């Protein structure tokens, strides 16, 4: 804390530092939620090898679901996150089983265009249903915060970050220790081998897509506590998830969370130092730099 | 040009000449509304053709072509608003700037081995980066937009692209026809065959001694330059430019729908796609307006569903099928 008798400049320096620390902590917490969203993308791409270009749109659907459940029934997004994730799992399973499975192995641009189409439909159905305006959820504890020394931390961000880490941990445990999780990893590592030993690859792909969407649904529900829901957010979130996954390294679950933290902090700092509207410019510059400078690493496990 | 024409089968030649004559004579009978829709179709046929050159022929997926539309539009509009330089001159500046950006994206991508989906992401990132930059460029109007003033005295100056619907109809028709001729010519050139080789199997193309980097760079340069010309047209047709609209990723996607629906890697695919999609979209808008439904997203939902249906049922597009039906071939062996 500040003491009287300190020089003015020293006081100002320490104040500025505490602001920076606040901004960074804020960025880390937001970044973990971003990370959960990106985790969904990473899991889908890592296993099914299909780029979910509608990822951000699904996140926005999760936001609206949590928003509606909160506004109509007063249910906290931190609670409704779980049923939303379950519903998204079902949607993802159905989508992969009915539509996307037939696109596995087809030309990259065909898969890409299919999911772009899905994204366009979702974004504009949301637009037709809810209108173009951003909707804030206005949680009762939305403006509460914890004071930890010089730090002022928003309650919602702390809860959301904890929830994001918990889900990521559960997912890690699923892939590590369950039979289904192991089978899915086998599909990712060696598709032909997995098929030869009798794994039902199509079903495992559907489960994987379901898991990916469950992540993004939960992340969307958490996102509604820190951002306003708007139909136009989809492409920006899709790109955000891509940036995170590519920065963090494809196929790595920890990488998605770490990438999320990195992007969360860099956005928060850029928004604070320069101008909030320019913050995503830095993410795009970062994406270009990573794409160009680490092409080998970026190819993931495809080799 | 003449060699191109001679290279077509007689039946194809007849179809093409008839179709062109019909479009040239349409303004004699059509009203303004129909002309405006046809103008839009030609515009999308043209920019779709530019994109098709890069994706359909050279196999490089760009999802950021709105970047070149926007740059072309802004460069020509700025030259006109600030210096009174007309679009017929400004278009060359637009081409140079857009090709420089396209070259930069291509160089970064091809030099550092950024391929497929990653290359597409690179193009999106470049477009989004530029969009945000233009939001903050005060001299270009920032996010508030740039407007080309309406001047009564200049109205007849067709050489400055100041005029009514009829002028823009013929300019757009010339663009679309020119785009078809240019791509048809290029694809029959040495470079065109190199593009096809690189698209099909880059490693094999290299083994044959094709400079794949050079071929891909040529594709992105020509494509971005062509797209920029479309941007100049856009600026003078609509007279207002907003970074959030013109550089938007939605615009990049709108632009690629035509060639995909029509048929990637075919000369007439982008034209056919534009003739299918634009009237359907406009018709849907007219229908919902008549029914009194105010649903701004409906056209886009329809586009999205069309995209899914086409890529699911007929991934090679409508034109190859249609060409078989009417007995026309694009390519004479």
Write the layout of secondary structure elements.
The complex is a heterodimer of chains A (303) and B (333).
Chain A (H helix, E strand, L loop, with lengths): L7 H41 L6 H19 L3 H22 L9 H23 L14 E4 L2 E4 H23 L1 H11 L1 H6 L4 H23 L10 H15 L4 H21 L5 H15 L1 H4 L5
Antiparallel strand pairs in A: 1-2
Helix pairs in contact in A: 1-5, 1-8, 1-9, 1-10, 2-3, 2-4, 2-8, 2-9, 3-8, 5-6, 5-8, 6-8, 9-10, 9-11, 10-11
Chain B lengths: L1 H5 L3 H16 L6 H26 L8 H18 L3 H25 L4 H20 L10 E2 L17 H23 L2 H11 L1 H6 L4 H27 L1 E2 L1 H4 L2 H14 L6 H22 L7 H16 L4 H9 L7
Antiparallel strand pairs in B: 1-2
Outline the structure in words.
The complex is a heterodimer of chains A (303) and B (333). Chain A has 303 residues and is mainly α. Chain A has a domain at 31-232. Helix content of chain A is 74%, strand content 3%. Chain A has 12 helices and 2 strands. Chain A has a two-stranded antiparallel sheet. In chain A, helix 1 runs antiparallel to helix 8, helix 9 (234-248) crosses helix 10 and helix 10 (253-273) packs across helix 11 (279-293). Chain A starts with 7 loop residues before the first helix and ends in a 5-residue tail after the last helix. Chain B has 333 residues and is an all-alpha fold. Chain B has a domain at 31-247. Chain B has a two-stranded antiparallel sheet with strand order 1-2. Classes of the chains: A mainly alpha (303), B mainly alpha (333). Chains A and B meet through helix 4, helix 9, helix 11 and helix 12 of A and helix 6, helix 12 and helix 14 of B.
């Amino acid at each position: 804390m500040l003491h009287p008798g300190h020089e003015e400049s020293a006081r100002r320096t320490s104040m500025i530092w505490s602001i920076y620390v606040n901004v960074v902590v804020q960025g880390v917490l937001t970044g973990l939620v971003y990370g959960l969203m990106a985790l969904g993308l990473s899991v889908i791409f890592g296993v099914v090898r299909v780029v979910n270009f509608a990822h951000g749109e699904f996140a926005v659907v999760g936001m609206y679901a949590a928003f509606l459940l909160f506004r109509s029934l007063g249910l906290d997004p931190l609670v409704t996150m779980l049923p939303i994730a379950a519903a998204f799992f079902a949607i993802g399973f159905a989508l992969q089983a009915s539509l996307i499975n037939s696109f596995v192995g087809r030309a990259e641009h065909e898969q890409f265009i299919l999911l772009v189409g899905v994204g366009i439909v979702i974004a504009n159905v949301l637009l037709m249903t809810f209108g173009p305006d951003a909707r804030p959820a206005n949680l009762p504890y939305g403006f509460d915060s914890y004071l930890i020394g010089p730090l002022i931390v928003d309650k919602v961000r702390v809860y959301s970050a904890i929830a994001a880490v918990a889900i990521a941990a559960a997912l890690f445990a699923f892939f590590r220790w369950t039979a289904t999780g192991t089978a899915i990893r086998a599909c990712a590592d060696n598709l032909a081998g997995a098929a030869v030993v009798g794994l039902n690859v199509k079903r495992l792909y559907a489960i994987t897509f379901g898991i990916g969407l469950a992540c993004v649904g939960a992340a969307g529900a958490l996102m509604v506590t820190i951002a306003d829901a708007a139909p136009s957010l989809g492409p920006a979130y899709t790109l955000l998830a891509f940036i995170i996954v590519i920065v963090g390294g494809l196929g790595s679950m920890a990488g998605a969370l770490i990438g999320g933290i990195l992007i969360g902090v860099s956005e928060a700092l850029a928004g604070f130092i320069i101008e909030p509207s320019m913050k995503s410019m830095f993410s795009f510059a970062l994406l270009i730099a990573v794409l160009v400078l680490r092409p080998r690493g970026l190819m993931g496990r495809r080799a | 040009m003449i060699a191109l024409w001679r290279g077509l089968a007689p039946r194809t030649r007849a179809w093409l000449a008839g179709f062109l004559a019909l479009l040239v004579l349409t303004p004699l009978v059509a009203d303004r509304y129909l002309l405006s829709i046809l103008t839009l179709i030609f515009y999308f046929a043209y920019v779709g053709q530019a994109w098709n050159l890069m994706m359909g022929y050279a196999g490089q997926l760009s999802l950021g072509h709105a970047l070149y539309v926007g740059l072309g539009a802004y460069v020509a509009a700025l030259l006109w608003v600030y210096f009174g330089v007309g679009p017929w001159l400004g278009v060359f500046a637009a081409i140079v700037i857009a090709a420089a950006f396209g070259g930069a994206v291509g160089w970064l991508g091809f030099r550092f081995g950024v391929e497929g989906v990653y290359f597409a992401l690179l193009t999106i990132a470049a477009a989004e980066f530029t969009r945000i930059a233009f939001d903050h460029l005060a001299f270009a109007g920032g996010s508030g937009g740039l407007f080309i003033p309406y001047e009564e005295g200049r109205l007849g100056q067709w050489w400055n692209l100041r005029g009514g619907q009829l002028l823009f109809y013929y300019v757009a028709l010339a663009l679309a026809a020119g785009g078809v001729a240019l791509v048809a010519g290029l694809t029959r050139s040495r470079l065109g065959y190199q593009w096809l080789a690189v698209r099909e199997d880059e490693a094999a193309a290299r083994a044959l001694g094709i400079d794949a980097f050079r071929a891909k760079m040529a594709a992105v340069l020509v494509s971005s330059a062509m797209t920029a010309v479309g941007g100049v047209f856009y600026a003078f047709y609509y007279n207002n430019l907003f970074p959030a609209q013109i550089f938007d990723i939605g615009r990049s996607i709108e632009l690629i729908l035509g060639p995909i629906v029509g048929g990637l890697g075919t000369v007439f695919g982008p034209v056919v796609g534009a003739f299918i999609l634009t009237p359907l979209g406009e018709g849907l808008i007219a229908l919902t307006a008549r029914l009194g439904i105010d649903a701004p997203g409906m056209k886009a939902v329809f586009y999205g569903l069309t995209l899914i249906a086409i890529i699911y049922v007929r991934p090679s597009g409508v034109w190859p099928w249609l060409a078989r039906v009417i007995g026309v071939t694009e390519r004479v062996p």
